[in-house]
Amino acid sequence: MAASEAVPYAKTGGLADMVGALAIELTKSGHHVTLLMPCYRGRATGEARQLAMRLSVPVDGKSIDVTVEEENVPVSGALHRLRVLFVRYDPYFDRPGLYQQDHQDYPDNLERFVLFCRAVLEIVRGLIETRAEKVDVLHLHDWQVALCAVYLKTLPYEYKGLDQLKVLLTLHNLGYQGTFPGQEFVKTGLPPSLFSPSGLEFYGAVNCLKGGIIFSDAVSTVSPTYAKEIMTAEYGCGLEGVLASRADGVVGITNGIDVVTWNPETDSYLPAPYTAADLSGKQTCKRALQRELGLPNRDVPLLAVIGRLTFQKGFDLLVEMIPELMYLDIQIVVLGAGDHQLEQQFIASKAGYPHRIGLYLGFDEGLAHRIEAGSDVLIMPSRYEPCGLSQLYSLRYGTVPIVRRTGGLADTVVPFRPSTVKSRCANGFYFIDASPDSLLSVLLLSIHVYKERHTWQSLIHAGMKADLSWDRSAKLYVELYQGLQSRRKES
Ligand code: ADP
After folding, report:
1. Residues 6 or more apart from 330 whose CB is under 8 A from it?
2. Strand partners, 73
3. Residue with the nearest Cα to atom 20 of ligand 1?
4. Do residues 18 and 156 both lie within one domain?
5. 126 CB near ligand 1 (under 6 Å)
6. φ and ψ at residue 362, rounded to 5 degrees
7. Do 454 and 485 reside in the same domain of the chain?
8. What is the pLDDT of residues 64-90, one digit of tens each?
9. Which of 7, 17, 257 to mutate to test the pocket of ligand 1 (most atoms within 8 A of CB)?
10. pLDDT tens digits, one per residue of 298-338
């Protein structure tokens, strides 16, 4: 499995959660998983790393020497071990950010991930040829590693020993395709003929994700609804035609969550534990959160926002409605970072209502847990959402999600309706139009329902008892891998 981020080592968003948790879950069920990722600055590690390999990697006509460090993570006690291999090349990866600094992408991101992709393939070659290991499937995640598929399938002479390797590419977000100016194509080291509309060219630019979609043996994404949506111009971000031209389509598998890390009963970030049967600890968490973010301890609905502040997430719809919402007796807490204008809007809202709005601009894992636990409602008005994890955490923490009906949000939130309330499966609310008015209507409804304690409790309980673990989804990935394996036997 190759990815640019994975918990607990490096994270900017849900990709890291998914990759780390899936790798552990597969290992737990007895599969031999090796996770490959770059070695970034500030390596959070519990175990000593050992030097595993020295490699020479071709990048932009040069040969770059990199080292590979190995860590073996005990899983299920020490019954199984997940092997993590870190590609270390400090000039590229020993930097303050993963992909950017001060809101600016690193100008050499293409070279950085070309190097990483080439290193991944050299490592796989080393495992097969030097260590005589068997590698069945290479599972790639997102644009940063998509070029692995392109090198493997288009440079057969360079990767002779790997011709049986099957490649699965998982798309976590079509909004990030790894596009670079056309003149940078030469840095990929690929044949110039591949810089064409049937290859990596995308309106004159280089598009890494497009290459991965074309050359992988199978493509999946992180929810069934998003798998359908990305076939349309509205959600395909220009790649809908390329996706639709894949004869085998795109498989949608909804992400699970790491139910050990995200467990209100044992979460060490929380001031008090709680369960569905005894929610008193949740009240303690709420009061502590109010104090932490400078809000008075009042028993009013506490609405939360957690996430990257980008257009995708639709938080602008909420910001616009804050003056109206402030007519209601509610509090709002916001944790996020990103778009400068949106950050400024939240700062201005906080300044206008200092005792009603709590704000932390930045990335803080512990605070994310405390907000999930201490809030009553989580708002995710995403314009699109491949899967979304925050709403899954909120279900597990008894915080009722209000979401826009799109992608994984549509697949995981059972909306409040008379019928779903009656059958006790309603666990949240959704709205359809990406407009501030639609969001406001559903917020008003939720605050009304909040006052009906019995109904609200049933929403909380439906969310908390849902099986959100990786168990089921990991099995679907195994089926996908096995399908690729049988293709290998046929070919
Ligand atoms: P995406 O991957 O698009 O960012 P997801 O909902 O799939 O969105 O995953 C977001 C993950 O990142 C969640 O684990 C969430 O708690 C975390 N997260 C997002 N922003 C922050 C932040 N500012 N501080 C801490 N955690 C954050």
Report:
1. 300, 301, 302, 303, 356, 447
2. 82
3. 307
4. yes
5. no
6. 150, -175
7. no
8. 999 999 999 999 888 899 999 999 999
9. 17
10. 999 999 999 999 999 999 999 999 999 999 999 999 999 99
